[in-house]
Request: fold
Amino acid sequence: MVRRQLGQLEAEILAVLAADEHALAPADIRARLAGEPAYTTVNTVLFRLLEKGLVTRDRDGRHFTYRLMVDESRLVADRMREHLRYASDPPGVLTQFVQTLTSEEEAALRAVLRDGEPGP
Amino acid sequence: MTVLTFAPAFITLVLAAFVGVLPPPLHPVWSARLLAIVAVTTALAVLGTAGFVGVNYLAGLDPAATAWLPEWALFGDDRPLPAVLGVPALALTAAGVTVAAVRSARWRREIRAARRDARTVVGTDEPVALAVPGRDGGVLVSRGLLALLTRDELRVVFEHERCHLRHRHHRYLAAGALSAAVLPPLRPLDRRLRFTVERWADEAAAEAVGDRALVARTIARVALNRAPGALPAFAGNGVPQRVQALLSEPPGKNPVTGPVTVVSTGATTTAMASAAFQLDRAIGFILL
Reply:
C-alpha cells in the first residue's frame, strides 16, 4: 500500500502554524481550520506531524502548544539551493512545483492571466 | 549486414523525432506514457544496433575470436566491416553505457540527499515545493510557500506533488533523461516528456480540487513570486503553457484511443528494439 503522503489536513495545519509566529494550542489551530474538524482529529494529525519532525511542542499548563519546526540552519538552506539546482536541471529526476521564469516567460504568463482569466 | 540492419534504429529515431515535435493529441496521462516508451525503445534500438555492428567489426578484426561468439550475434556473411562503421558504432555503445551509469549514480545521490530534508520545513522565504521520490520521500516545502499560499492553494500544491509521487513520475523523467543523454537527437522528446508529466500532475490536481482556475492561479502565483533569474539558463519549462492549458477546457480522457495508441506504438517500437538486439534470431537459435 502506498503510504499517504502529507495529507490535506496536515498541509492545512502546517499552513495555520506557518501563518503564526506564536505557538498554538490545538483548540486555536482547530478554530482556524476551515470546517472545524473534530478536536481529536486535529490532535491526531498534530501528533503525526510531531513524529515526522515537522512541528515541535511545549507543555503549557495542561495542554501542549505547537509550532512549526523550521530548519533555519545555514546547512539546510545550502542543501535546499542544491536541490533547487538539481530540480531545475533538465536531465534530472527531481520535480519542482514550478521553476524559475525567464523574463519572456514572465511576460507570457502575465499575458495569459490578463487575457485568459475566465470572467466571473 | 544489409540496409535492413539499420531499419529498426532508423524507424524508431524518425518516430521519436516526430512525436517530440508534434506530440499526439492525447490526455497527458497517455502522452506521457507514449513519450516515455518511445524514448526508451529508440535509445535501446540505436544502442542495440550500434553494439551489434561494433561486435561484428571486432569479429572481423580477429576472426579467431569469433569462435567465442554465439552464431546469432554475427551477421553470418563473413565479410569484414569497414572501420568507418565499426569505430563510431563502438564509440557510441561505450559512450551510451558510460553516460547511463554515471547519470543513474548521480540521481541516486541527489534523491538520497533530498530525502534527508523532506522531513522539515525549510526556512527559506522562496516559495518552493519539491516532490522527493522513494519510500521515505515526500513533499519538501519551504516556509515561504506555506506563508504565500492560502489553504486551498496549498492543497493544489500537495495534490500536484502527490500525483508525481503516486505515479512515480521520476521514473518517466529518468527514462527520458537517460535516453536523451545517450542519444542527443532525443532531446526535444525529453523536453516534451517533462512538460507532459507536469501537465499530468496539474490535471490530477485540478480534478482533486475541482477547480481548474484555482490550479492555474496557484501555479502563476508561485511562479511570479519566485526570485527571478536565480537560474536563468533554463528556458522553456512551460509555466505559461501550463497555466493556459488549465484556463481552457479540460482535455479529453481518451479512455479508448489513449490505451490503444500507447499499446500499439509500444508493441511496434518494442519489436523494433528487440530486432535491433537480434532477439528474433537469438530466440530462434535457442528454440531450434
Observations:
- Chain B has a mean pLDDT of 86.
- The radius of gyration of chain B is 23 Å.
